[in-house]
Amino acid sequence: MSKPRLWLQLFEREAGRGLGRREQLCASLRQAMRAGELELGERLPASRVLAADLGLSRVTVEAAYGQLEAEGYVNRAVGRGSFVAIASGAGGQRKRPSPAAPRIAPLSRRGQLITATGGCEDPLQPRAFAAGSPDLRAFPLALWRQLLNRRLRSDAALLGYGDPQGHPALREAIAGYLCQSRGLRCRAEQVLVLTSSQQALQLCATLLLDAGDALWMEEPGYRGARTAFAAAGAAIVPVPLDAEGLCPPAGAAAPRLIYLTPSHQYPCGMALSLPRRLALLGLARQDSRCFIIEDDYDSEFHYEGRPMPALQGLDEAGRVLYVGTFSKVLFPSLRLAYLVLPEALVQPFTVARSVQDGHSAQLPQAVAADFISQGHFAAHLRLMRQLYRERRAVLQEALSSLGWLSAQPSAGGLQLAALLPQGQEAAYSRAAAARGIATPSLSALYAGTPAQDGWLLGYAALTPEEIRQAVAALAPIGTSPGRRPRLRT
Ligand SMILES: Cc1ncc(COP(=O)(O)O)c(C=O)c1O
């Protein structure tokens, strides 16, 4: 039997048991291993390949592999693949694993929760239409090198250990920028410099959530955040969206945490309205344990006038933790991001950060501080905004020629949500992949049953010509459904 058919047959054998798709896949692989249909040391297909064969999202397959690894059925080796870790026999007794499948130590419960999330993945190479990549070709490298050399010549202290809270000059520069451009009310003493938003979310989860605590998330929402909260054992409550953003049920009790992308909802693009902002702050004020995490991941790239000021600026009660990152506005490998914390949380978060990894690298922090304070940051943002606005227009125009893909309105960002005829996402994604085009899945961003099939198309890193070519490559794969899909809220 051909391999894709074998996988499909194994998968379908567990259908009709009322399992979710991830659990169905786990059950079918466990069963096949116990029955000896998959042998000890056998390599499982790459998650991308299996996802395509079974019509699942890659996230689902990754999560299933992660869960099976946590349970001891599978060994995974970075860069090598995933391997069957048990031999068939009574109860699936484990034999010595083959050299191809090194044993890993048994994991803690926490370790199992973390690996069961399937982990996070960012695009390694900017290419059509990987989401979330800024244009690295347009970065002023010569200027950065100059600033770096100047610091290297004059500041040997940067080679030593640094302040866990972050280089003072960078904290000053960040606070100044946020107060002026994003309407925050904060001092440099409230800024904690980190390596990434992901680390910020992970710290919030570690310090504020106990297993089983309720956390509200936008549905659909950012997978990196869901991963961090799921790894902490949170009871994640997906909250639906409408045109005004997060729309919690009337009279709902305040959860422990609310995670929001209020400037530009990820992935749908709407801004959270002022009445909703005030209502959520009011809700948080009623319960001293409730905090709001504001992930302002790409508000610098707003193309229709100015973005709404940050929610943090409206917070009178110290309930908002503000997350920002330099991954999009400078470059991802810089690994610099920040949290702006209510006064009472600064010390515990700084201690926790020192326990995790000490501090962020000093030299890049100092260079980033110089880049901001000398005015280069503002100039770079102006230039990038112009570039990305043009690219968004090119993509919108190119997509409008396809009858089957409906670009959703968006005030900014590096990517655009586009809807597909319902039920077509897996097949269309396979066809796009066969043409070398990445089409990040919209349905994979739902915690529950996806309400929309679609793609989140990254355009910022692509030249107009690259965008047109990639859309032309997509053109033959779809047929017009007659009526364009609309975002359901
Ligand atoms: C909603 C959201 N938050 C944060 C980030 C990125 O953060 P970092 O690279 O700093 O972890 C992204 C990147 O795509 C994002 O989409």
TrEMBL record:
<protein>
    <submittedName>
        <fullName>PLP-dependent aminotransferase family protein</fullName>
    </submittedName>
</protein>
<dbReference type="InterPro" id="IPR036390">
    <property type="entry name" value="WH_DNA-bd_sf"/>
</dbReference>
<keyword id="KW-0808">Transferase</keyword>
<dbReference type="GO" id="GO:0008483">
    <property type="term" value="F:transaminase activity"/>
</dbReference>
<dbReference type="InterPro" id="IPR036388">
    <property type="entry name" value="WH-like_DNA-bd_sf"/>
</dbReference>
<keyword id="KW-0663">Pyridoxal phosphate</keyword>
<keyword id="KW-0238">DNA-binding</keyword>
<keyword id="KW-0805">Transcription regulation</keyword>
<dbReference type="InterPro" id="IPR000524">
    <property type="entry name" value="Tscrpt_reg_HTH_GntR"/>
</dbReference>
<dbReference type="Pfam" id="PF00392">
    <property type="entry name" value="GntR"/>
</dbReference>
<feature type="domain" description="HTH gntR-type">
    <location>
        <begin position="19"/>
        <end position="87"/>
    </location>
</feature>
<keyword id="KW-0804">Transcription</keyword>
<dbReference type="InterPro" id="IPR051446">
    <property type="entry name" value="HTH_trans_reg/aminotransferase"/>
</dbReference>
<dbReference type="InterPro" id="IPR015424">
    <property type="entry name" value="PyrdxlP-dep_Trfase"/>
</dbReference>
<comment type="similarity">
    <text>In the C-terminal section; belongs to the class-I pyridoxal-phosphate-dependent aminotransferase family.</text>
</comment>
<dbReference type="Pfam" id="PF00155">
    <property type="entry name" value="Aminotran_1_2"/>
</dbReference>
<keyword id="KW-0032">Aminotransferase</keyword>
<dbReference type="InterPro" id="IPR015421">
    <property type="entry name" value="PyrdxlP-dep_Trfase_major"/>
</dbReference>
<dbReference type="InterPro" id="IPR004839">
    <property type="entry name" value="Aminotransferase_I/II_large"/>
</dbReference>
